[in-house]
Design goal:
The chain is 49% helix and 15% strand. The chain has 449 residues and is of the alpha+beta class.
């Protein structure tokens, strides 16, 4: 793993909805993670703010972190996106801003390339990396492997979390998927079984003595809520905040690394199959190379990156399992493994078929050569005195004999498939002598009986 960090951006200014006052968030860091041997990149942006209303925090979790708009409202703004997102440098100058209102840009890109285009403020963070289908010049090109919603981690330091109602807990835990303005779907299984499915309450006692820290994980989002009055919860060096930034971040990162890697493997397989044309030898060879290279990379991924036990701490391990299960990493791994195994079996069977055909041809040639070998051996290969005469005559005899034998071998190879069928007919005791003669005629001429 290699991490690149940029330090030229200091703030993020968000206008959540049209007409609202902008909110400024401080940039903690912006990192780009490159994972060796996987051709995989993950962007990590950490922002922080203080004294935000809880509803505003939930609105940020819902609207921020979308690579492109999923649709457009009647007024032209991106659907479910922030109205405006701006990156500010250390002098307060705008480095880049979102352009989700440019509907024609996104639709034109999708129509031309059958792939989504990302918003300008995210594209700016990734440069000099550029989209694979973009006309923009760049040294490295990337493409999205999932939909527009980015994985989100949230650390909420709340005054008196014990006073939050169950509906507020559900809205916080499902903040990335539940619209802030819609009514709570009380009959939906995710709401009915919210605590059992998404909550990890090892450090939640709901008592005055505490601790009152609740972990909620939906797979795509990991949210930690605690009491602002607790010094341990807010400590950035030894408390929950430090654990959130380092330990739980790695747990979340690894779980999504597993999912992203498996999606990359699946994407490579699909692309290789789409490019396969069995009538084109070059396409077949290219397909074999891609499948074998993908298989080798998958083996290294299995032994280097894929594991189930992440920590000796039971709570950290429980969070990892919770996140992985909601992401369906285990089922996805089995699916990709089976797909690669089927591809590998296909290549092995194809290679076995080619080897079998080669053995059949060699067997036919060996049988024909055996006849000539036994005959010449019986006469001692002295029927014609080639050893006598001038050098030119012997050389001429050698060239003619070699040419005749080479022509005979090449003819046998060209008729090896038919000759192998003839040998099978010849060994058939139920076939008459005339039938065997007809089989020989078909082997020599290729005409039907």
């Amino acid at each position: 793993m290699h991490v690149f960090r940029r330090k030229d951006i200091a703030q993020l200014r968000l206008t959540l909805r049209e007409g609202q006052a902008p909110i400024e968030l401080q940039i903690v860091h912006i990192d780009l993670y490159f994972f060796h041997d996987l051709d995989l990149v993950q962007l990590n942006v950490e922002v922080r703010a203080t004294d935000l209303p809880l509803d505003t925090a939930r609105d940020i979790l819902y609207r921020f972190g979308r690579a492109y708009p999923s649709g457009w409202e009647e007024g032209g703004d991106g659907l479910h996106n922030v109205h405006l997102a701006e990156w500010l440098d250390t002098n307060g100058q705008v480095v880049a801003r979102s352009d989700t209102a440019r509907r024609d840009k996104y639709l034109r890109f999708v129509c031309e390339h059958r792939a989504p285009c990302i918003s300008e403020h995210w594209a700016c963070l990734l440069r000099p990396l550029v989209l694979a289908h973009s006309d923009e010049p760049g040294d490295l090109r990337y493409r999205l492997i999932e939909y527009h919603r980015m994985p989100v981690m949230a650390y909420l330091n709340v005054d008196q979390p014990r006073s939050l109602s169950r509906e507020q807990w559900v809205r916080i835990g499902l903040a990335t998927v539940l619209h802030p303005d819609e009514a709570l779907p009380v009959n939906e299984p995710t709401v009915l079984e919210f605590e059992r499915r998404y909550c990890q309450d090892r450090f939640w006692t709901n008592t005055q003595a505490g601790p009152n820290t609740r972990f909620m994980c939906t797979g795509n989002a990991l949210t930690v809520v605690g009491d602002s009055a607790s010094a341990f919860f807010s400590c950035p060096e030894r408390g929950v905040l430090a654990q959130f930034r380092h330990q739980y971040f790695l747990v979340f990162l690894i779980a999504h690394l597993h999912r992203a890697s498996l999606l990359v493997f699946s994407d490579v397989l699909v692309d290789a199959v789409n490019d396969l044309d069995i009538r084109n030898d070059g396409s077949v060879r290219r397909f074999k190379r891609r499948i074998r290279a993908n298989f080798e990379t998958f083996l290294r991924f299995t032994h280097r990156y894929w594991f189930h036990e992440l920590s000796e701490r039971s709570h950290v391990q429980a969070i990892f399992h919770l996140c992985s299960n909601h992401l369906r990493n285990g089922a996805l791994y089995n699916e990709v493994r089976d797909e690669i195994r089927e591809m590998s079996h296909y290549l092995d069977s194809d290679s076995q078929r080619r080897q079998t055909n080669t053995v059949v041809r060699l067997t036919v040639i060996t049988i024909l050569g055996l006849m000539a070998t036994v005959t010449t051996g019986y006469f001692g290969m002295n029927i014609i005195p080639f050893g006598e005469g001038s050098i030119s005559n012997r050389l001429l005899h050698g060239v003619l004999a070699t040419s005749a034998f080479v022509a005979l071998v090449l003819f046998a190879i060209s008729r090896s498939k038919r000759l192998s069928d003839f040998l099978e007919d010849l060994s058939d005791e139920k076939l008459s002598f005339i039938g065997k003669c007809k089989a020989f005629w078909v082997a020599m001429t290729g005409k039907a009986r």
